Amino acid sequence: MEAFAVNRPLFSIPIRPYILAIGALATLTLYVLAWAYPTFPGDEGALMRIQALRSGSLDDMAIWFANLGLLWVFMPAAVALMGCLAIARRYADVVMIIGGLAVIGIGQGLKTLVDRPRPEYYLFDTVPSGLSFPSGHSLLAVMMGGVLVYLVGLWVRPLLLRRAIQTGLILLVIAMGVSRVYLGVHWPSDVIGAYVFGVMALLGLIGLRNAVATAR
Q1: Residue 141 CB neighbour total at 10 angstroms
Q2: Are the beta carbons of 95 and 150 closer than 8 angstroms?
Q3: Cα atoms found within 13 Å of the Cα of residue 134, Cβ hemisphere only
Q4: Which of 17-21, 39-43, 169-173, 184-188 has the lowest mean pLDDT?
Q5: How many CB atoms neighbour CB 119 within 10 A?
Q6: Which has the closest alpha carbon to 104: 147, 139, 153?
Q7: pLDDT tens digits for 155-193?
Q8: Domain interval for residue 124
Q9: Count of domains observed in the chain
Q10: How crowded is residue 137: how many other Cβ atoms within 10 Å of its Cβ?
Q11: Residue-by-residue DSSP string for 57-101
Q12: Alpha carbon distance 142, 61 (integer Å)
């Protein structure tokens, strides 16, 4: 089973080392700029345009996404998934999920290093705590959503069903980031920073997962 999974990569075009190096350099540059500047050009305008779409249904949806990113909500789901995978002896997949959770924790440390304050455009009375860059909810979404997209690519054989599930997961990841800007608790660049870092980390986790599967 593991050997079959290794032979079905997420992308048909292999990721070259120089592409990873360029991506890592771009990520580092983005984070240094976020440390140097409280906002990026276009941040405020984009946030205000998104909030101009405000409606009751969008408020409810944004709050739902905010609750989805709470530790006591997503962690039990992740633990349950890892338990099922361990029972199925898919240990490489378990390692990948654990790595994704570790990356989310690293993201919290990066917030402290960058030390960017949150915007003051929040829609509700509760003042958000913590720092702004990168968006923790968005990093959670891209890591867990990305892991699921990859695993669905391994598990689901019917092409149309596989693509439908993967597309739905990707849309959820995007919606999470947009909801954070909509609520006014993050600048758009906070979300972009989370996505960039998350995608780079995800590529590394895919390599780690496949190395563990091959070793077995």
Answers
A1: 30
A2: no
A3: 29
A4: 17-21
A5: 21
A6: 139
A7: 888 999 999 999 999 999 999 999 999 999 999 999 999
A8: 2-215
A9: 1
A10: 25
A11: HHHHHHHHHHHHTSHHHHHHHHHHHHHHHHHTT-HHHHHHHHHHH
A12: 18
Q: What is the CA radius of gyration of the chain?
A: 18
Q: Which two tokens stand for residue 199?
A: 């995608």
For residue 200, the SS3 value is helix
d(CA 134, CA 129): 14
Q: Please, where are the H alpha helices in the chain?
A: 2-6, 17-36, 43-51, 56-68, 71-87, 91-114, 136-155, 159-182, 188-215
Residue 111: CB atoms within 10 A of its CB come to 18
Torsion of the alpha carbons at 192, 171, 67 and 41, rounded to the nearest 10: 20
Q: 160, exposed or middle or buried, with CB in 10 Å at 0-12, 13-18, 19+? A: exposed
- DSSP conformation class of 15: P
Which CATH number fits the domain that encloses residue 174?
1.20.144
186 alpha-carbon distance from chain centroid = 15
Percent of the chain with pLDDT over 70: 91
